[in-house]
Please model this.
Amino acid sequence: MSHPAPLQSSLQPLSRREMLRNAATGFGSLALASLLQDDLKAELTNARHPQYPAKAKHVIFLFMHGGPSQVDLFDYKPLLERDHGKPLPFPKPRVVSAATGNLLKSPWSFRQYGESGAWVSELFPHLAQRVDDVCFIKSMHCSNSRHGAALLELHTGSDTFVRPSVGSWITYGLGTENSDLPGFITMCPTLTHGGVNAYSSAFLPADFAGTPLGNASIPSDRAKIPFIENADQTPTSIQRMELDLLQSFNRDRLAVTGHDDVLDSRINSFELAFRMQSAAPELQDISDESAETQSLYGLDNDKTRNFGRQCLMARRFVERGVRFVQCTHSYKWDQHGSLRTGHSNNAMEVDQPIAALLTDLKQRGLLDDTLVLWGGEFGRTPVAQGDDGRDHNPQGYTMWMAGGGIRPGLTYGSTDEYGYYAVENKVHVHDLHATMLHLLGIEHTRLTYRHAGRDFRLTDIHGEIVHDILA
Model:
């Protein structure tokens, strides 16, 4: 059986729970002891101490599933416009998704905005007003040109093996700030290209897995925290008795087997589900949000309502101490054809909600310690696929970050003159993960877990912190 070794540092005093576990008593035998319920809740509530002062406490990941086109959104290339229709003047990558043709200029115009002078296309007019809060990384690259593998690499650090997701690593390393809610929530996650593996805990204890609210086929206003339906039909005292009976079976099992990570996680999950019944309904009822706030997020518009609610709920979750929240716009950005229609619709659905999230977080003083990350699993080619499409491009693309210790108003790195390859200050996905962990106060080489005879980490044997983008 594997055992966790989250932070390789000097010895720390054992908690009450750890002491009893090491004495072979096990958590299961404590679950029924009412005198320890407060101890358990306090332990789950208190976040683990970061290894050094953290700039960020929470992460909101705005995932654009499918691969948004950097040369149509944020990476303005005058030569692409000038040489439209001509052959790419240098070799294309050896591995590609499908055949492509000549250079294809962006159908949309670009302008510079803010004091930073960041380039933004006309597709993102609302976000353009927030560019001085944003750090654009225009030199991203990853290792795989296929959706499934690239999506898993972005979410887990590996494009070939099942590994814990970044949200699971973060909650494993830091714990949660609210014992009545999951530490890791993913809203409307994708059903394809890896599915649950994008938010699973893999070999980490199961209670560090992401809690999915709905899925990509369910509107966000119906994507609710599970285990609370009809909770008020059974008195809390009866529910507690039922749970205690179930936990007594678990205690008996642990008395036979000894320490069991899987059973421990199951016990934790049942206890969390019980506590969520009182916390979740109020949290998910947005009637306490002003009409002005709801309009800010676009909840009064059919086009923006779905992703707008995800962004609003993300703010509410981090306000209450949820460590990692993912909002997914799925699966819409894969324009091998119909680029003009597809990217226009996609941007219209997310632009206002994203700008609203940045505005709202900043107004509430939450942006300082909330790291917001935007991007897809890769970008798209500056050369055409068919008459009106672009192929996958993992060679060079744009992601952006804001808040949580990131240097605002910065454009970092660049692609070549046509936007195909990252060429200056290249940032791999491993570097992105290392930087995220650094901002959260975690040294990425020390966040490890021993499994199958070796120590694993999110960045494996890779990853360099991108110090130049830090505030």
In short: The CA atoms of residues 416 and 423 lie 6 Å apart. The radius of gyration is 23 Å.
